[in-house]
Amino acid sequence: MENKKPIGIIGAMAVEVKELIAHMEESGREEIAGLVFHRGILDGVDCVVAQCSPGKVNSAVCAQIMISTYHPRLVINIGVAGGVGVGIGDLVIASALVQHDFDSTPLGDPLGNITICRGEGEESFIMLESDKQAAAVLLEEAGSIYGGAHMGVIATGDTFVADREKNRWLGATFGAKAVEMEGASTAQACYMNGVPFAVLRAISDNANDDSPVDFPTFARESADKSARLLARALPRL
Asked: Is 205 tagged catalytic?
């Protein structure tokens, strides 16, 4: 049998990964920098699953450790997000990701511009594109199972968005369909290492003034949707 590298799966909260870990035929686990990496077979596919905790730094650290230790062929960041012009319970698969809170405009840069080292030089970008094949599979399966599936930009920042004006601004400025706290930073770690990535979000709230009330109610159900979708998609990735 072909010895493929594993698929890495990262979620910020326990609710976002616990169903996956529970259904995994676990062959081992390892704690690195306080993060626990679960290795095993999930839906017939070799996977490594980890919870990173919320925020851009946490997710980037988790992704880098996962890449350096397990050498995944694809990293999928899953979880819940606030919707921007989409419905609660819908699924959003990232076509591209942006860090909406990265602002070096006083230096003459466009909003969201990220600069990284490339050897002795530098590279700048605003959006990072997801792996097209993985995103297409996730979108197809999401549409088949649930119907309410969207492909679009996901905006990431170190703040829980619970403001109607901010929600509208994210849509108008970046064309975002969802907002969360880990996707673009996970994507950047993958991009810098040359590892394909995909980001999947189930919409748990409307990222507006009602968000603090909505979130606890819908987070578990939305996370379960992601887990059921992966059960269909993983064998195709």
From this structure: yes
Provide the sign of the torsion angle of the four alpha carbons 105, 110, 111, 116, taken in this order: negative
Domains in the chain, start-ordered, CATH in brackets?
Answer: 7-236 (3.40.50.1580)
Residue 231 tokens, joined: 């059960």
Q: Are 95 and 151 in contact (CB under 8 A)?
A: yes
154 and 199 Cβ atoms separated by less than 8 Å? yes
Catalytic residue among 16, 90, 141, 214: 16
Q: Let me know: does 201 contact 186? Beta carbons within 8 Å.
A: no
Rounded Cα distance, 43 and 141, in Å = 15
Annotated catalytic residue 16: yes
- Digitized pLDDT (tens) for each residue of the chain, 237 residues in all: 355 899 999 999 998 899 899 999 999 999 999 999 999 999 999 999 999 999 999 999 999 999 999 999 999 999 989 899 998 889 999 999 999 999 999 999 999 999 999 999 999 999 999 999 999 999 999 999 988 899 999 999 999 888 889 999 999 999 999 999 999 999 999 999 999 999 999 888 776 666 555 566 677 787 788 888 998 999 999
| Helix intervals (H) in the chain | 14-23, 56-70, 132-145, 164-174, 183-193, 211-233
| Marked catalytic residue, from 90, 141, 205, 214 | 205
